[in-house]
Amino acid sequence: MPEGTYRNPVLNADWSDPDVIRVGDDFYLTASSFSKVPGLPILHSRDLVNWSIVGHALDELEGLTKPEPGCRVWAPSLRHHDGRFWIFYGDPDRGIHVLTATDPRGPWSRPHLIKPGQGLIDPCPFWDDDGAAYLVHGWAKSRSGVNNRLTLHRMDPDARRLLDAGQVVIDGDLLPGYRTLEGPKLYKRDGDYWIFAPAGGVTDGWQSAFRAKDIAGPYTDRIVLEQGDTDVNGPHQGAWVDAPDGSHWFLHFQDRGPFGRVVHLQPLRWSEDGWPIVGDAGRPVPGSRMPVPGQPAAAPASGDAFASGKLGAQWHWPVNPGPAWWKVEDGTLNLACLPGPDDLRERGNVVGQRLPGGRFTARTSLTLDAAPGSRAGLAILGHAYAWLGVELTAEGPVLACRTADAGQTERDLVAPMPLRQPKAELTVEVDDDGRCLLTTGGVFNAVPGRWVGAVIGLFAAGGAGRAGFQRFDIDPGGRQDS
């Protein structure tokens, strides 16, 4: 791209349902984390393009001892009000929670349940000029039996309780063509109230804006962003934000299958009749000028040299990890070989990262010091998975490469190969479509999980012992000769 411009996506991995705010010259972003631990990632940028992970708002998820794919933390909203940062998120099985911090890097308060119930999702708070506070949210039909509508509550300004039973302010069933209206973000501009909300579903939806003179409506609607003749399917569910120079921008996701929901940045301007025009007349753009020029290049961390004595912020678990599950020392991640299900989708001690979008190569060096029957390795994990690693059989150590289709048990992807010692160099090359070429020559097509992209991770299984992983490198590029 020419100097002073950027190319989409600006976050090329699974940063689902992004919300973003600006505080001074700093931008902060959070995203859905579902059942990942830690949850609610906090990203920081000075230009909306170059982002770094600076922390998480949730260190653990209450009672999460077994994987719960697609559950827990949905579509958060991030706001800065009265000297505090606020995150509201919906748990579709428990209700709407709020937590706060004076510094977005933490510490954050424990989640407070402000509205209990099932199917309550995608909450967004709003504090009006007169001090009144409100909360708008959507509905998950899988839990509540209803969806395609947005409900508004009056709220205590400290967000400890709601002040009324709520009212439906936008009913998508009354709007021609609308389905799965969700993900509302509530704003005010020049005296008008705005609800930015997506509809139409994750893969093929669009972004609408709703406008009213009164916060309770009636609202008029306009589609402000849709795929059109571009290759950006379902562009929606994100955040409107301004830059220090007064320009306006909109971040949203695009569902890219195994790579999850990647984040695009669109310029936003206002028409003569006061409506937002997003992208190129309502179509996604491949790139634009930098919102804030002159900032250094950055991206969320991936891989890990294991040099700091702790896991980097890019790692996550599918459950709350035990203190004895892992240890980082001397450039090595030691994972305890733990008993548990053979199916990696059901196993808690798989430590993973978001699958990077685009072509890359991942490498690690594994030594397995454990009891017979143990195994450890590198996995690409979604509804289906494949793994490559060392297994200690009765005949000795082997280089194993196995896969499991959705709903099926494991099978050999490539026949086991004998090893002289229980150690191996593990490599997987991933192309732009998610095709994975493993060290053994095995080929696996990565697939997403429930509401999330695939995970690239490390695991160790068995009754005793440990697996040592020296470095975990993720490098752009890969041969893909086979």
From TrEMBL:
Keyword Hydrolase: yes
Secretion signal span: none
Listed InterPro entries: ConA-like_dom_sf, GH43_C2, Glyco_hydro_43, Glyco_hydro_beta-prop_sf, Glycosyl_Hydrlase_43
Record keywords, A-Z: Glycosidase, Hydrolase
GO terms of molecular function: hydrolase activity, hydrolyzing O-glycosyl compounds
Active site residues of this protein: D17, E182
Pfam families xref list: GH43_C2 (PF17851), Glyco_hydro_43 (PF04616)
Domain Beta-xylosidase C-terminal Concanavalin A-like: 304-472
Residues at the site labelled Important for catalytic activity, responsible for pKa modulation of the active site Glu and correct orientation of both the proton donor and substrate: D122
GO BP term, example: carbohydrate metabolic process
Homology family: Belongs to the glycosyl hydrolase 43 family.
Protein name (database record): Glycosyl hydrolase 43 family protein
Species of the source: Nonomuraea diastatica
